[in-house]
Fold each of these.
Amino acid sequence: MKLSLILLGAALWATPPAQVPSKFSGHKGKDIVYQGLTEDFVPFNYQEDGDVKGSATEVAKEAFKRAKLKVSFAVWPWARAYKAALEKPKHFVYSTSRTQEREKLFKWVGPIVKDEVHLACLEGADFTPHPDFTTFKSHTVAGQYGDAPIEFLQKHGFKITIYREEDERMQAFKKGRIPLDIVTTGSQKSYETKWNVKYKKLAYLYSTDYWLAFHPSTPDAVIEALNSALESMRKDGTLKNITAKY
């Protein structure tokens, strides 16, 4: 009897514990390579020496690493990147604002970085800054297809000339065909350098958080894993340290 109990105990001790099912079981989340698409939007996301860099990109890479998910990144024109995230499974677009109009179009991970949005003209243009942005409603604004500020200004009755390509928009603005543009605090310096312009901020529009916006077919478990990874980055200071570098 004693020997039987000993053998039974040994057998139980040798039996491995029950495995906790992976949160990715059923859709092979760990085997999928997600495609992150973005635009040239320094300092948040940009391409340099063949690599996609920037504060938002670095945050996204670390979140995927902690979630043990595979990802690759590419810089595309914004309209094309946004459209791909809407239409193609396993794709996401960033850095983008999470608006009411977009809420149900994507699944969301974030926020990853913050920014402020302003209405602006060329330095030297005959405009005077004003705390009420609606003061400038009678003037046309240059807008980029898919940009959240367009939706905001249209709600307030602004006339927007929308361009699919950044080059077209900036040439129209530089040459004075469109008097006003939209600029953010984070990107102003890089835009001025890239396009050889000087902005004069006219009115504050709003503050925004930028997010990763995933195709709606993305499994909830993947979204939860990435948001959990981001939360751990907030708690251990990684998120703050990354954004401080830029």
Note: The CA atoms of residues 119 and 182 lie 5 Å apart.
Amino acid sequence: MTAGPSPADPVAIEVLLARLQADFLGELDERIDQIENLTLAFEKGGFNQVDFDALYRTVHSLKGTAGSFGFSILSAVCHAFEDYLNANKQQDRQFLNNCLGYIDLLRLACDRIHRKQTDFTEIEASIRKLRERHFAKRFTAMLVETSKTNAQLCQQALTGLPIQIVQLDDGLQALTRLLSEPFDLLITSQEVKTLNGMALISAIRLAGRAVQPIKSILLTSQPGIIPAAIQPDHIVHKDQHLDRNLAVAVSQALGLTT
């Protein structure tokens, strides 16, 4: 009797992953249809929390599965869709139309993936336009901070600026989103989970985001130990003037000062 492939056999694992990816692509249109049906249910039966939670879970599930198979453009659309759902609890006709806008992007990304295209610049630009329209903000910033108190302080300091803020507490998760979604600014504490602030800034620069460069601001209690090779655009000391100095640094980084 011939023994089957070892569970650790890299060829067998590669074949299995390819099969799972093919299954995912085969079900992708159906999963997007499910998201659309959940969205249209609001038009037919009005808003209810059960349907809203089901919509959010389905978008979240697609985001995770797409990311695990390397389809970062699908994850990017789902991330933006999730952010919109989190920020909009009042459902009306405009809410429905905005959700359908994200679903259109999912279908466009799905079509290009099926046709084995790899240029998603147009879709990334559309994500940015949807963010700007839905949040009435000119810029999108990633805030990476483990301390809830500091994160809240930073959010409050930037309230008056035209910035939509996405907040995470994990450096590696932030890197994944920064590499797949259009952000204008990275604000990161040095002391964050998984990937610290200096490593995160270095990784972004090494990735060479030439099309859409990301400005960086490092929040640290020890500004004197930053290596010259990893100099961020701005360094803000974590002291009693953090909120004021952060607002100034962000304004300078995004060209909001005159």
Note: The longest strand covers residues 139-144.
